Amino acid sequence: FENNINITNCDSIFFNGQSFYETGQYNFTYTNVLGCDSTINLNLSINNSSFTSQFINSCDSYEWNNQIYFNSGTYTYVTQNIYGCDSISEINLNIYESYINEIDTSSCNSVEWRNQVFSSSGVYYFPDYSVNGCDSINVLNLNILEKPYVDIKINNIPCENDTINPFEVLFKNYGVKPFNYKLFNEDTLISNYYSYNDVDTFVFNKSGAFSISELHDSLCYNEDQHDFELIRNLNPNAKIELIPENIISSGTEVLLRNTSRNYEMFLWVIEEMSLIDSINHNPLITFNDTGTYLINLHIINNNGCRDSTMQKIIVLPDFHVWIPIAFTPDNDGINDIFTPITEGVLNPKLYIFNRWGETIYFSDRNIYWDGKYLNKECQNGVYLYLLTFNDHLYKSHQRIGEIYLQR
C-alpha cells in the first residue's frame, strides 16, 4: 500500500531512524510480513527557529524588551515566529557608567581650571565625555579664602600740648592665626610683628604717617598696604581781653572779653570774688574793693583738649582832694598852715603865686605853705595855688584856686 504523511516541524525532525533538516518529499519503501511492498511518502516542511545576537554599548543603563538593565552581561529573549518556531534574541551588553568628577579646592587668590580663571567662591559644573562616549560632569567646589587684613581704629588721640598720654591704636586682625606684618613710619621699619591675638594694642608717642604691609596669616598673603595717619587734636587757645584795662580804680566796671579760639565750653573763675561763671561769655564785673584779682579762664573743645589763661586786675583806691579857702598863720596853733588834704594821690606838687603871677612857693615833698616867702611873712590878701598830682593809675590831675591869708 502507499501512505502519504504531511509533517511540519521546526528546525529538524527525526523520522524513520533519520534526522531531516530541510523541507522536501521523502519516500520510504518497506516489505511487509506478507512480502508485499508498501510505500510511505513523507511531505516534510521544516521551518527554522531564528537567532539574533548583537553587541551593545550603553551608558548607565539599557532598556530592552520592556526591561531595564544596569549591569553588563549576556541577555536572551525567547519568543515564537510566525511559523510557531522559537525566535531567540541575544544581546552582549556593556554598561559604561557616566561619572561625576568632583574637585574640592581652596585658594587665596584665583584658580585656573579648564582654561578658565575663577576668582569667586562657588560650585562650577562642566559637562564632558568619557572615552566610551558617556556623559560626565566635572564639579569644582571652589573656596576663595579671604585675604588677611587689619582693621585699624585710633582709640585715643592726645592733644597738641599733651606730653604724657600717647596715641593708642587698636589693630583688629582678620584671618587665620598667626599673623605677621611689617609696621612702617614713613619709610622706616618700626617692627616686624608676629601676633596670635584677635586684637593688638599699639601706643605711639609721636604724630606721623604710618603703614602696614606684607600681611600674612597661616594661609594667605595680602600684598595691599594699609595706611593710617596720627594727628594730634588741636588745642583751644584761651585768651582774655580786659576793657578798659587791668589797673583800675575802685568802682570801675570791667568787661572780661573772651577772645579764645577753637573751644566749646568755658568757665570764668575769680576766687577773690567767689565768682564762677559758665554762662556769660563776656561778663561785665564791677570791682568795688581795692586789691589784686586773678581772672582765670578755662576752656575745653569737642576733643577734650583744654587750655587756660590768667590775667591780673589791680584795683586801686580812688583819690580825694580837699583844699581849704583860707588860713591864719599867727602861731596860735589853729589853722596856721595852708595844706591840701589828699587821699589816693601820688607825686603831689604845690605852687603858690602872688597877684602878679610870681611863684613865691613850691614844694614836691612837704605839701603845705606857712605863709612866708624867703622866710619873710607875706602880707594879708588873696593868693593863687596850683596843686598837681597823679592818681594810682598815674593819670595827671590838677587843682587851681584862691587861698586867703589872714594874720
The termini sit apart by 222 Å
CATH class of the largest domain equals: Mainly Beta
CATH architecture of the largest domain: Sandwich
How would you name the oligomeric state of the polypeptide chains in this document? Answer: single chain
What fraction strand? over 45%
* Structure annotation, total helices: 0
How is the biggest beta sheet arranged? 5 strands, antiparallel
Mean pLDDT: 91
Shape estimate:
rod-shaped
Entry summary:
With 407 residues, this protein is mainly beta.
Q: Could you explain the architecture of this structure?
A:
It is rod-shaped and about 230 Å long. Strands 18, 19, 21, 22 and 23 form a 5-stranded antiparallel beta sheet that branches. With about 400 residues, it is mostly beta strands. A hairpin with a 2-residue loop joins β12 (about 110-115) and β13. It contains no helices and 40 strands.
Describe the secondary structure blueprint for this structure.
Layout (H helix, E strand, L loop, with lengths): L1 E9 L2 E3 L2 E3 L3 E8 L5 E11 L2 E10 L2 E3 L2 E3 L3 E8 L5 E11 L2 E9 L3 E3 L2 E3 L3 E8 L5 E10 L4 E8 L10 E8 L4 E7 L2 E8 L3 E6 L3 E9 L4 E2 L3 E5 L9 E4 L3 E3 L2 E7 L6 E6 L4 E3 L6 E4 L3 E10 L5 E11 L3 E3 L3 E2 L13 E3 L2 E8 L5 E5 L8 E2 L2 E2 L3 E10 L5 E10 L2
Parallel strand pairs: 1-5, 6-10, 11-15, 25-31, 33-40
Antiparallel strand pairs: 2-3, 4-5, 7-8, 9-10, 12-13, 14-15, 16-17, 17-20, 18-19, 18-21, 21-22, 21-23, 24-26, 26-29, 27-28, 27-30, 30-31, 32-34, 35-36, 35-39, 37-38, 39-40
